[in-house]
Queue: 4 jobs
Job 1
Amino acid sequence: MPLNFVGSHILSVDQFDRESIERIFAVADQMIPYALRQRVTRVLEGAILGNMFFEPSTRTRVSFGCAWNLLGGEVRETTGLKASALAKGESFYDTARVLSGYSDLIVMRHEKMGSVAEFAEASRVPVINGGDGANEHPSQALLDLYTIGRELTDQGKTIDGMRIALVGDLRYGRAVHSLCKLLGIYKDITLSLISPEALRLPESYIYSLRMAGHQVIESTDLGQGLQSADIVYVTRTQEERFESPEEALRYKGLFRLNQAVYTEYCEPNTVIMHPLPRDTRAEANELDNDLNDNPNLAIFRQTDNGVLIRMALFALILDVADQIEQTSRTVNWYTAKRF
Ligand code: CP
C-alpha cells in the first residue's frame, strides 16, 4: 500500500512501495527550479528543522539543511555526539522529547543501529533517518535510485532489467543495504556483488533479492564483476564500523576503480556512482580522481539530486507539495550554473 507521507517518520526504505517512490520522484522533479536557484518559495516560512547529527556527515547534514532552507524554513542543528547531552548520559527518549518541542521535523543520524527508530518513538514530530549505524540510510537510497533512473533514461534504459555492480564494503555500507531493498521492488535486475569474502552483503539481503526474482552474482574479482554493468556503484571501506583501524586497513585498496580499469572492463557508457565520501588516501583510493573528467561519473549529480529528494520528503511529510507555487517567485540575484 502507498505510504501516507503526511506526519510520517521515515525510518526505513521498507516503508515504500513503487507508487510511493514514484510520488517522491515526481515531487523531486518539481523542485528542480528551486534547487537551480531559478525560483524561490517560502512555503515553509516559520518552520524549524532540527538537524541532529551525532555522527560525522558532510552532504547528508548540509543537503537536508539546504533543502529545508530552499523551502523557506529555518535550521537548528547539532554536530557530533560530544557536543550534545547524549555524551552526559541523557537518553534518546529525553533528547527526543526535548528536541521535538523545538522543531517541526527532525533529521537524525547516530552510530547505533535502531537508534533513530528509538528516538522517533519518543518524538512529538516526524523524524527522518539520516543514517543509523550499518543499518539504513533511506534518503541516500532514494537519491541513488532517482539518479540511476535519470542516468538510465538518458541512455534509453530503465531500472527494470538493468545490470548493477556493487563494489567494496557491502557488509557495513548502509547506503548499499537501503539501495538493495529498494531495488527489490523493481523487476529483473542483475546484481553483481564484488567484495572481499569478509565484507559480503549480508545473506538476508541476497535472499530477499533472489526471492523477488533478481539475479545475484557474487565475485571477488573486480574486472570480472564489472562486465556488462549499466551502473557501477563503488563504496568506501566503512572503517568506523570495524574493531580497529588496523582491521579496516586489511580491506582498503583491494578494489580500485580508475580510468584504466574502467576502459578495460566497463561498457563505454557505464554510469559510475558512489554514495561518498570517497576515501582518496593512497591506501584506499577506491574511486580514482583520474575519473573526474569522465562524463559517466555521476557522483556529483548524485549529491545535487540529494537536495531534490530531501526537499520532496519535507514537502510530502509536511503536506505542502501542492502549495509550493503559491509563494513562488523568480530570483533577483546572479545565479551560477550548477547542474
Ligand atoms: N553519503 C553520505 O551519507 O555522506 P555524509 O556522511 O557526508 O553525510
Job 2
Amino acid sequence: MPCKTKKTSKLCTQTATASEYEKLNKIELLNIVSKLQCQLKEAEKSETLRKNESRAIRLVGIAYAIIDKNHQITTINETLLDLTGFTKKHTLKKNLFDYLLSTNDNNLIQKIKDSLQNNTNWQGEVLCRKKGKKFFTAWFVIAKFEDKKNKTEGYTAAFWDITRFKDNEKMLQEMAHFDVLTKLPNRSLMYDRLKQALTFASRYRLLIAVMLIDLDRFKEINDTLGHHVGDQLLVEASSRLSSAIRKSDTAARMGGDEFLVILPDVGSATNAAHLAQKFNSLLSSPFSLSGHELYISASIGVTIFPNDGSDSDVLIKNADTAMYHAKAQGKNNFKFFTEDINKSTVERFVLETRFRQALDKLEFHLNYQPKVDIKTGRISGMEALLRWYHPDQGQVRPTLFIPLAEETGLIIPLGEWALREACRQNKEWQDEGLRPIRVSVNLSVRQFRKRDFLSVVKEILCETKLDPKYLMLEITESTIIEDITGTISMLNDLRDAGVSVSIDDFGTGYSSLNYLNKFSLDELKIDASFISDLTIPENCRVVESIIALAHGLHHKVVAEGVETRNQLEFLRSNNCDEIQGYYFSKPLSAETLHDLLKKDPVFET
Ligand code: C2E
Ligand code: MG
Ligand code: MG
C-alpha cells in the first residue's frame, strides 16, 4: 500500500530548549508517526488495527489516535487505553483536545491548533488526562495526513508517558543545583542567586549582605565521632540557618562545613549584625545527635554590597577574610570586613606561606626549660618548647606561630617532629651518661584527637629507643573537656604504654572536678597567671587549692612561671612539688641545657 506523508512539513516544538530525550527520539518519533499514518490508513480499511499495531510501538508504550478534521477521535490503539485507563467506548468520537489534553494551559492547546492550521506539525510536552481525574506528562506529536488531492483528511496524534524522564530530569536538576546532604542550594546556584541579587540591588540601590559561616570544631567532631555524626550535624546546622532567614534570602552550602548566606535587601549593616548574632547563638546551642550532646560554634565573616565589593567573587573573598579574622579572634563570633582586617589577613597569608617553607626547610628547633624539684633542688625534668628561627625576624615565639599551625593543620607534622626530636635528644643525653630525666612535650588538641596518635607515640618511642617513663605529654584543660570519653580512653592507653600525662595551664580552663579523678594523670601544672601575682589573696587561695586537689588525687603539682624568691617560698610552704620558671632558668638551647645537665647543679630552694 503506497504511503503518502508530507515530507516537507516543518516540525514545531513547544520549547526552544528541547530535552535530551526529545533530541534522541525526534527522528525516530517522526518515523513512527509516518509509519502510523500508513498503518492506520490501511487499518481503517481492513479494520484490523489492533492486529496490525506494531509490536515495537506497543512495547515502547506509544499511544496514538487518529482524529478527523474537526479533531474528533476516530481511531485509537490499545496503548492509549492502557496509558489513560479510559475505555474505547468513551474515547471514540470525543474531541482530542478537550478530552485528552489538560485544559490547564489553554494557550498551549491554541498554539497546537494554530500550528496545525498553518500546516505545521507540532510536538512538545503536554499534560494528558487519565482516569480518576489524574494527569501525566507526555511527549505529544501531532501531524496531519492528506488525501490524494493533498487536502487535509485528518491528524495522527502520538504520545507517550515521560513522567519517568521528567523525574530523572528533576533529580539531575536538583543534583546540579542543590547540595545532596543538606538540600540547600549549592555553590553554583548560590553564585546565580548572588548575581541576580547584585543586578537587582544595583538597579534599586539596595544593600546586600553576604555572610560566610564556618563551623568551629566541626572537623574534630567528624574525626572523633565519625562522618555519620558529622553529616547529621551539617543537616541540623543547615536547618537552623534556614529557619532564621526569609524566603527571599539564600542559605547555601559552599562545601565542607562552610555556608554562605545572601540577604539581597538587608536594609542596613546593623540588620546584618543582628542576623549574624542570631546565627552564632543558633549554632552554639547544643546538638543532640546519635546519643551525643554536641557543642559547636561558628565564625562568621560579613561583607556588604556595595561597600565591600561590587562583584560576587570580591564579596565572597572579603567575607572569607572577615571570617578568618573572626576565627582568629577566638571563634564563635562574627566580623565585618574592613581594610584593616584585609591588611592583617594579607600579613597572615605571608606568614602562613613562610611557615610552610619553614617546615620544609626545618627552620624549627627545640628549647628546653628545666623543672626543679623543690625538695632536692635538682633538675627533675625539662619541657621541650618549640622555636622558629626566622631568617629575617630571628626567633619567633610559639605563641605567635602555634595558633597558625593549629588553624592550618600544620601542627600535626610539626608536633610530631617536636615529639620525635625531644625523645631523640633525651635518649642521646641518657646514652651519653647524663642523669636520666623526663622530657615534657606539649600537645595540641588536633594531635591528641588524631586517630593514629597513640601509634605515632609508640612508633617514636620505639624508633628513638627512649624508655616511655622518660616521656611526659602536656595537654590543656580544653583538650580534655572537648571529648571526655575519648580523653579517658586515650589517657588509659597512654598510661598502658608507660607514658605520663600532665595538665598544662591548670586553672585557666573549665576542668570538671567530677571527671578529674577519672583521668589517668600524673601531674597538674598551675598556670603562670596565678603565680605571677601572689600578692592577690584570691590567687594564693587558688594555688593552695590546686596543690591540695592535686595531692588529694595523688598527682604531682608543678608551678610554672616562677620568677621570684617570694613565689618560690610561697610554693614551698604550700608543698608544691616542682618549679619551672625564669627564677631558675629560662628555656635554653639544647647545647646550653646539655652543659647544665652535665653539671647537674643543686639549686637553692
Ligand atoms: P606552656 O606549655 O605553658 O609553656 C610555658 C611557657 O611559659 C613558655 O612559653 C615558657 O617560655 C614560658 N615561661 C616559662 N617560665 C616563665 C617565666 O618565669 N615567666 C614567663 N613570663 N614565662 C615563662 P613559650 O615557649 O613561649 O611557649 C608558649 C606556649 O606555646 C606553651 O605554653 C605551649 O602551650 C605552646 N608550645 C610550645 N611548644 C609547643 C609544642 O611543641 N607543641 C605545642 N602544641 N605547643 C607548644
Ligand atoms: Mg607546657
Ligand atoms: Mg603552661
Job 3
Amino acid sequence: MSLIRRLAVITGGGSGIGRATCQIMAREGASVAVVDVDESAAKETAELCKQSCPKPDEAQFHSYSVSVANSKAVNDMMKEVKGQFSQPLSIVVNGAGIIRDKMLWKMTEEHFEEVIDVNLKGTFLVSQAAVKQMMQDGCKNGSIVNISSISAKHGNIGQSNYSASKGGVISMTKTFALELASHGIRCNAILPGFIKTPMTGKVPSEILDKIIEMVPIGRIANPEEVGEVITFLASDKASYITGTTIEITGGLWM
Ligand code: NAD
C-alpha cells in the first residue's frame, strides 16, 4: 500500500475520475476527504472508500459539499478537514470540472466565466488553501495533482472556454511546482483524453464513435486507468517528478 498514513483532499470526488481516484487511494491506505458540489454523490463516494480500504480502522473518510469556485467555502472546508482527520494533509487532487460546450460564435460570457471559475479558479483556490495548511504542518512529501485535458494541448471544437481553462491549469501547475519544490511539495498535471464518465456521457454517440476511431488504442478509457496514474503521482514513488504533464489518451493527439 503506497499511501499509508496519508490524507488526500480530492475535488470532484463524487463522480467519474474523482470517484475512481478516491477509491484507489483508499485501497492504497490513504484517508480521503471527498469534496464535491453534489452532496449525496460525495457521501456515496466516502462510503465506497470504506469498502475499498483494506484497513478501515486505520483510515478515515469524510465528505464535504463545497463548490471549489467559492473561496470562503473552500477555506472553511479546509479548516473542517484539519479538525476531522488525525493525519496531516499531504495530497491534493483537483478533479472538479465542468463543460459548457458551444461554438465560439454561440458561447455566452456566462458559459465562459462558469467554466473558468470552476476549472481554473477552483484549482487555484483549493491548492492555495491546501498549501497554506501543508506549510503550517511542515509537510515534507506533499503532492498536488491537477486534472487538465488533452483539449488544452490540441484544442477541441466547441471548447474555447474549456481548453483555455485547462491550458491555464498546466501553466499554473508549472508555477506551483517552481514555488513549492523547496517546501517539499510537488505539483503535476495529467491530460486525459476521452474517459468513460458522466462528462463524456453528454457527447452524442456518433461523435464519440468518430473519436474512438482516431484513438490508436481503439477505445475510450475507464476512470480507474486515470486514477492509477494520479495515485502514482501522489505517492512517494514519484518523488522526483514535479512540474510535468502526463497524457492519458490511448495515443490520441500525441
Ligand atoms: P464528472 O462529471 O464525472 O465529475 C466531475 C465532478 O465534479 C462531479 O461530481 C461534479 O459534481 C463535480 N463538480 C462540478 N462542479 C463543481 C464545483 N464547482 N465544485 C466541486 N465539485 C464540482 O467528470 P469527469 O469526467 O470525472 O471529470 C473529472 C475531471 O477530469 C474534470 O476536471 C474534467 O474536466 C477532466 N477531464 C475529463 C475527461 C473525460 O473524458 N471524462 C477528459 C479530460 C479531462
Job 4
Amino acid sequence: MKRIICVAASMLLCMMLASCSRQPETENNPGSVVVGFSQLGAESSWRIANTASMEDAAKDAGFGLMMENANQKQEKQIDAIRSFIAYQVDVIVFSPIVENGWDNVLHEAKKAGIPVILMDRMIETEEKDLYTAYVGADFYAEGRRAGEFLLQKADAMKAEHLNIAEISGTIDSTPMRERQRGFMDVIGGDPRFTVIDSISGDFLRSKGEECARQLLDQYGVGGIDVIYSHNDSMTLGVLDVLEKQDIKPGKDIVLITVDGEKEAVDALKAGKVNCVVQCTPNLGKAVMELVKKLKSGEHVAGTYHPEEGMFTEFDDLSNPAVEGF
Ligand code: GZL
C-alpha cells in the first residue's frame, strides 16, 4: 500500500512540475530564463568556488537557477536532469561526475528540445549532438604542465632517478583521466622517472590523508621522491600526514598539485609544495554567456577553455599575481 502511495506521489510531483506555467519569454524579462544546474557535489574548495561562480553569474544575468547537488552520486545527477526536463527549463547545465552513463538521460533532454551545456567535466559518448557545448579546463594541458615542471625540477636536482607516486582524482572522471595522460606523455619516456604507484583519493582531503599513509607504509619516505596529486584538497591531506611524521614536504618529497586554491599557493610560498597547476573554478560567467546566446538564437557549439597556467618554486613568489582562489 505504502509503495502505491509513493508512486502516486512522485507521479503527482512530476505532473505538477510539468504543468507549471512558464512566464512568457520577453526581452525585458530575462528572469523568464531558467537554467537547470546539476552540480556533482561539494568535495573540495574548488567545487564550492565553482558552485558560487554559477550562482553569482546566474544572478548577474537575471536568470533563474534551479540547482541540485548530487553529493557525488551519478544517479542523483540523472534524477536532477529528469526533473529539469519535467519542469521544461530553458537550458540544462551539469558537471558529469564520471564520463560514462549519460546517453539515455541526454536522449530524453534532446527529445524535450532542451539544450545541454557540459560545465567542468566531459562525457564519453558516440553521439556528439547530445550536448551543445563544453565549458571547462583543458585537463590534458594541466597534466602536461605538471610533467614539464618535474622535468625542470629533476634537472635542477641533478637527479639520476626519481620514484613518483600519483594520488589521482575520481576514477573515470575527465580531470583524473586527462591529468594522468598529460603528465605521463611528458615524463613517461624519461628513464629518470618511475611511477611506483597510482591510487585514487577521489578529490577528497580525507582520502588524500589515507593515500599518504598507505603510500608511506608501503614504500617508506625513502621510497617516494615525488607525489603528483590531482587536486589541492588531497594535497592538503598529504601535508597533514607528512608533517605529523616529521617529513619535510617540498624538500624530502617533491609535491606537485592542481587547482590553485589559496591554501595550496600559500604552501608553495612556504616551501611545502613545489608546483601548483592552476584550474579555475570560475566558469559561471562563460556558461551564462552561452545561455544568453542560446536564448537569442545564436549558434553555440564547441569547447570553451579558460586561460590557465601554473606557479612553481622557480617563480618570483613575491609577485602579487601569484595568488590562489
Ligand atoms: C576540475 C574539477 C576537479 C577539481 C577538484 O575541473 O572537476 O574536481 O580539480 C574537484 O578539486 O573536486
